[in-house]
Prior knowledge:
Elements: H1 2-14, E1 24-30, E2 35-41, E3 46-51, E4 60-67, E5 70-75, E6 77-81, E7 85-86, H2 90-99, E8 107-117, E9 124-133, E10 136-148, E11 152-161, E12 171-172, E13 177-178, E14 182-193
Antiparallel strand pairs: 1-4, 1-14, 2-3, 2-14, 3-7, 4-5, 5-8, 6-8, 8-9, 9-10, 10-11, 11-14, 12-13
Amino acid sequence: MLKKYLLILLIILCGSCFKTQSQNTAKIHIQPSSVLSIKGSTNINKFTCKFNTAVLKGESTVHYTVEENDIIFSEATLILKNDCFDCGKKMITKDFRELIKAETYPEITLTLKALKPSKTEPNITYALIDFDIAGVTQSYKIPMAIETENVIKASGALSLNIRDFNLENPKKAFGLIKIDDVVTILFELDITMV
């Protein structure tokens, strides 16, 4: 999914060059320098769970069309294996995996549907993404900043409520410690075209 985001960002930057609605294909690679993390808090502490982006090896093929300034994707899915999240401490990682029902649903699937440049903020592009967590799919519109240098850098944040995915926050210490319902997904993707 991260690979798909990066490709999307590149396509948006080049979107003004295309005016057709024909199917296009691009190959992208999400670099290991990319960062994807989930931040949350409990009633007594904060936590950060980082995804091991080094497992996103190889190239991904993305299929898209350009409609005016928007990029519409037909095949742009990123699969994140839940066992690749590390929260820094064994018990917190175990609780996080329990929260997202990792044993029953071993993957989180992100499907990029479209990239739409902001009409009011020139440096912002909106990504329309479907998140599938624990068998429940929700759609989000995520603002992203995109920079191009040697690689395409796409960054953004999304706050979401875990209850939207029918997730129950685990209670520890006889209910005295509880994870807050809202977590924030932060990403900084480094993408190259192959």
